[in-house]
Specification:
Elements: E1 4-8, H1 12-24, E2 28-32, H2 35-44, E3 49-53, E4 55-56, E5 59-60, H3 61-70, E6 77-81, H4 86-95, E7 98-101, H5 106-118, E8 128-131, E9 134-137, E10 142-145, E11 148-150, H6 154-166, E12 171-172, H7 173-180, H8 191-203, E13 209-212, E14 216-219
Length: about 220
């Protein structure tokens, strides 16, 4: 299962340094420079943790996260900010789950993010997803077709999981790329097409992954 983090930070150099460090410990990282980008990312992706700089071009991230919380968004949040008064820290912890003051040690940030990822709420999707004779067990990280256990990579598992979750609707290329990799992958890259070819081969006949021109891919039950 891909563990995914959203990093919202308007300082480009710091955004690059933090995202590189988080990817270095195996996390998938989506980045945003402002609340508008973060809002779009949250609307299309599921996250295990989110890191927000408080003072962003659009304003303080604290009210934004508070609004999301009132809507039922339960993703653990770490605020990363230069605002270091006791009142600021208490306000941040009243909305978020952790608060780290700049400047900070990168190793400490990585450790705190990993800890929050372990606290992430369990996904609402069923533990076992099915389409026809295809079955994906998220708990055991197993994929079976007609009862036969298949060998898939972590990224193949993630892409197949999203296809099953959205079934029978088509899933856009961008969503599949961001779910299987992260925003480091160029949307124009052919990595998804290569992976789909591998998955089609591993799933055997009759074919189940259908190309939807101009959109992406969807699963269809074997006829």
């Amino acid at each position: 299962m891909v563990v995914r983090v959203l990093l919202t930070e308007d300082d480009g150099d710091l955004r690059l340094a933090v995202s590189t460090s988080l990817r270095g410990v195996g996390l998938a990282v989506d980045t945003a420079a402002d609340l508008t980008d973060a809002d779009l990312a949250i609307s299309v992706n599921a996250y295990d943790c989110a890191v927000f700089d408080r003072m962003l071009p659009a304003g303080d991230a604290l009210p934004y996260v508070g609004h999301r919380r009132r809507q039922g968004w339960g993703v653990p949040v770490l605020f990363l900010t230069a605002r270091d008064t006791p009142a600021d820290i208490l306000a941040g912890l009243g909305v978020g789950d952790d608060y780290l003051v700049k400047p900070f040690e990168m190793a400490e940030l990585v450790g705190r993010v990993l800890s929050l990822c372990r606290r992430s709420p369990a996904p609402s999707a069923p533990a076992v997803l099915r389409c026809g004779d295809l079955e994906l067990d998220a708990g055991r990280h197993e994929v079976r077709r007609a009862g036969i256990l298949l060998t898939v990579t972590r990224t193949e598992f993630a892409v197949l999981e999203l296809l099953l979750t959205r079934h029978p609707e088509p899933v856009p290329r961008r969503d599949l790329i961001r779910h299987g990799w992260d925003d480091l992958v160029n949307p124009a890259s052919n990595v998804l097409e290569v992976l789909i070819r591998q998955l089609r081969r591993k799933l055997h006949e009759p074919p189940m992954i259908q190309t939807v021109r101009g959109v992406g891919y969807r699963l269809i039950p074997a006829s």
